[in-house]
Design brief:
Elements (H helix, E strand, L loop, with lengths): L2 E6 L7 H15 L3 E6 L25 H10 L3 E7 L7 H8 L16 E8 L9 H8 L2 H4 L1 E9 L12 H13 L3
The chain binds flavin mononucleotide (FMN).
């Protein structure tokens, strides 16, 4: 059975990021694949300690709540990372999670665990959906070395209202279809 790992990087448990990710998860499951869902703000995990052990071995030496998620990513077919925009960037836990994915790339910065499809989801207060495009692109530059092939990016605007995504039918269809696309 195919597997998709989803990370929610919002502190709002029922906010826009969660709404979109739950719909993505439904698309994944409707195509017969398994979902592992991690809510980063509920997890206790350390930031990367720069020990560089993962430059020699394909694992992180930190045994905390993120370690299990990292193991799931290694064997996943797809990954989804959802983050609100805070101060024009991803939230802190999402950045810390990405750093902890360092074991996915080898000492030559080649992927150790093959290629997985990646969907990114961002929510932002500002209405202009192009506002952070250059930041999204810049962030995406790290994905190839991790073996993450970006297949889509969903952006929820006007997201200070936690029900903005719920009221956006087009966005919800996009999320559902993206979930399905992750499994094929
Ligand atoms: C500390 C903080 C900083 C924020 N910075 C930005 C920002 O730079 N640009 C923006 O459009 N929205 C900003 N916002 C608004 C959030 O992006 C918005 O509330 C969030 O996307 C809601 O997503 P959620 O419902 O999934 O939690 C900020 C919110 C907070 C709490």
């Amino acid at each position: 059975m195919k597997k998709v790992v989803i990370f929610n990087g919002s502190p709002r448990m029922d906010g826009n990021t969660a709404t979109i990710l739950n719909i993505v998860a439904r698309g994944v499951r409707d195509n017969g694949a398994q979902v592992k869902f991690y809510t980063l703000f509920k997890m206790k995990f350390m930031a990367c300690q720069s020990c560089f052990a993962c430059r020699m071995n394909d694992d992180c030496i930190i045994r905390d709540e993120l370690h299990g998620a990292l193991q799931e990513v290694k064997t996943a077919d797809g990954v989804v990372v959802g983050s609100p925009i805070y101060m024009m960037q991803m939230t802190g836990p999402v950045k810390n999670m990405y750093d902890r994915l360092f074991p996915l790339t080898d000492s030559q910065y080649n992927p150790r665990f093959g290629t997985k499809k990646l969907l990114t989801v961002y929510s932002q207060g500002i209405e202009n959906s192009h506002m952070f495009e250059s930041y999204f692109e810049y962030t995406a530059a790290m994905f190839p070395m991790l073996g993450l092939k970006l297949i889509g990016n969903i952006v929820c605007v006007n997201a200070n209202d936690p029900e903005s995504a719920e009221h956006n039918a087009e966005l919800k269809i996009q999320a559902y279809e993206a979930g399905k696309a992750l499994t094929i």
